[in-house]
Request: fold
Amino acid sequence: MNQAALSRLESRADLSVSMLRSCVEALGGRLEVTAVFPDASITLSCLTSTETREDLRALVNQQCYLQLMPEDHETDRFMVGHVDDALVKLLKLSNAQYAEIPIRRVFEVLPATSQAPATIVLRGKLEWSAHQKLRKMVLD
Reply:
């Protein structure tokens, strides 16, 4: 990020928690958000947790299911290829097509069982477009 971009970011009146977290982590820190009341302080770990991203990174090079798939694709298996700060890139094993999903759209990661691989549960749903070779996230 160059100086001009950082300056614009600092002057914004409304900044997403994920953007703020990324900036703090890029500087070598860790973001903690605390709500302060007259009689108590409560850490809002749900806003600053990187648990989902770490759960996804643990799945790199492993198979998984995606939940909230169209009915005719519910049992499709994917290989988790790459996870960065914003996206998880998956390879659909049946036809070698890729899906890139924003991490902010991942609701949770369910662990693998002895009968099935891990499941990535999405906010929203995936929709197939015959004109594209990628699945795309459709926001509700």
About this structure: The first strand starts at residue 34 and ends at 36.
